[in-house]
Amino acid sequence: MPTLRDIMTPGPVTVDPMATLKEVATLMLEQDIGSVLVMENDRPTGIITDRDIVIRAVAYGHDFGTPVTDYTTGDVFTMAADTSVEDAAREMAQRQLRRLPVTEEGRVVGMVSLGDLAVRTGGEADEKALQGISQPTNI
User: Which of 53, 87, 119, 130 has the maximum number of C-beta atoms within 10 A of its C-beta?
Assistant: First the structure.
């Protein structure tokens, strides 16, 4: 049974909490990625996506020199690298996550996206996750 270690993208791109929106957007462009982890003392304190930047900052005309922490999603949920892909897909669906930081011995070592589930597992795991992620939330 495949684990997150088998399908993760190693070495996720990270920034410190004082990075600006412009710096993060530039990193996303240079690395061809859609999310960046905000780290403080080797601990993920937030995650920001390209969509967060557009919806939470650009749409309101906010300054691109603003610290990224004003726009991040906090309480980053992570899973261990030895977690089965099936268990991770279930958690991603339940929590409506499109991206999942992967840890080993308490340190972030990779990132798994919904796309990774699709491409690297033959599509079964991403179908389960997508069904849960696509459900509307009761906000």
Answer: 53
pLDDT in tens, 55-110: 999 999 999 999 999 999 989 999 999 999 999 999 998 999 999 999 999 999 99
Tell me the C-alpha distance between 17 and 81, whole Å: 25
48 contacts: CB under 8 Å, gap ≥ 6: 24, 35, 36, 38, 68, 71, 72, 73
Q: Where are the domains of the chain?
A: 4-133
CA distances from 130 to 66, 69, 106, 137 (A): 33, 27, 27, 14
DSSP state of 57: I
How is domain 4-133 classified at the CATH fold level?
Answer: CBS-domain (3.10.580)
Residues 3-20 have pLDDT tens digits of: 999 999 999 999 999 999
Global pTM?
0.83
